[in-house]
Write a structure and sequence with these properties.
The chain is mainly α. It has helices at about 5-15, 15-30, 75-90, 100-110; strands at about 65, 70-75. The chain has a two-stranded antiparallel sheet with strand order 1-2. Strand 1 (about 65) and strand 2 form a beta hairpin.
Length: about 110
């Protein structure tokens, strides 16, 4: 490891991830972009080809082989593709809330009157 790499690690640790996120959000807003936070949970055990999530697919630290579709790749590459797919997927639309029973009864009685 040379001096520049060690210095970069120190700088990243000094800035902190929250401050880095704030700076990045500011820059993306100025550029007209957006930041999407993606949970890394299960990205290393989920197949990026077929979507199967099984712990046994992760054969070792570096090897990923899907038992369902047969795809084989580097485990980090598989996780990175899953994160990319999660970050570029359209946001879920919010469903309208169902009317409560009380509101439905009040509406029905108002229509009857």
């Amino acid at each position: 490891m040379d001096y520049r790499q060690a210095n970069l690690k120190v700088v990243v640790l000094e800035i902190g991830w929250y401050q880095f996120h704030q700076f990045l959000a500011y820059k993306m807003a100025a550029a007209g972009g957006e930041i999407r936070l993606v949970s890394a949970a299960h990205t290393s055990t989920t197949c990026s080809c077929c979507g199967t999530n099984d712990k046994t697919n992760r054969k070792s630290q570096a090897v990923y082989e899907c038992a369902d579709c047969g795809s084989a790749m580097n485990a980090d590459t598989n996780a990175a593709v899953n994160i990319l797919l999660a970050g570029t997927r359209p946001a879920k639309a919010k469903r309208p809330r169902a009317a409560s029973r009380r509101a439905s009864r009040l509406e029905a009685s108002a229509q009857a009157a």
